[in-house]
Amino acid sequence: MLLTELLHPGILEALAGAGHGARVLLADGHYPASTATGERARTVHLNLAPGLLDVTTVLDVLLRALPVEAAHVMVPPEGEPEPPAIAEYRSKLAPVPFDTLGRFEFYDAARSPDLALAIVTADTRTYANLLLTIGVRAEGTLTTR
């Protein structure tokens, strides 16, 4: 049994193979994961039923498992209000640099060869997609037994 709360074997495998600068996509249930992800990325589907598992829940677990150096979110067209999910991510990720991308810019970023992992959730909120860039572990944070 692992000591971490992150137990999903596919997610663990993809994260173990990813390094500094690799990206992780947390996709809502509307995201076109079959066409808008990097071809080398591992895709993990956690979308069992609408709303059952959302991006925020996955983010909370990942933030305890890996360092994040940057984040990107998909935003609606100019003039539309900011979706609540974005404010929530900004709060959870502070002080991590946080950038916004339009829909098609976001798709292009997620198609990058740097995408190591795409996690598809059942989040039913619109514009609830999040692209994380993996950082480096701070010196002295590795614990050994």
Automatic annotation (TrEMBL):
Taken from the record, one Pfam family name reads: RbsD_FucU
Q: Does the keyword Zinc apply?
A: no
Q: What SUPFAM superfamilies is this protein classified in?
A: RbsD-like
Catalytic activity line of the entry: beta-D-ribopyranose = beta-D-ribofuranose; alpha-L-fucose = beta-L-fucose
- The answer to keyword Ligase applying to this record is no
Q: Which UniProt keywords apply?
A: Isomerase
Q: What is the name attached to this protein's record? A: RbsD/FucU domain-containing protein
Its ancestry begins with: Bacteria, Bacillati, Actinomycetota, Actinomycetes, Kitasatosporales
